[in-house]
Amino acid sequence: MAKLFYAVAFLVTYGSLYPFDFSLSELSGEATRRFLFEWSLFTGRGDVLGNVALFLPYGFFRMLVRKPGRSEAAKLLWLSVWGFVLATVAQVFQLALPSRDAALGDVLWNMLGLSAGRAR
Questions:
Q1: Which of these, 58, 54, 56, lies nearest to 9 by C-alpha position?
Q2: Entry pTM
Q3: Sorting pLDDT into bands at 50, 70 and 90, what band is 120?
Q4: Label partner for 4 (CA 20 to 30 A): which of 12, 28, 40, 100?
């Protein structure tokens, strides 16, 4: 089950950073300022649904991975921490993708998808 979870984590990362057309010129001060201070929670129905759906399998498969000696609460804590890190790092990397719109609000929708996926 762990291999399946890691495959899902890879696909989440791939889906978040596709088409990989990174450009350092996109990392202007204005883009970073907008990313940090001018974000909105709702950017569009398709965007919200896509962000939720992207992290549903991540939460689902992570909770199925067996770790000897770990309680359900500990698994849930690690799922939340690493899911938040993955979602945030993906958004930061999207700042350098001209074809993507990085938004901190997307992290919240990713975490909602992760939560829905883990609720079995």
A1: 58
A2: 0.88
A3: low
A4: 100
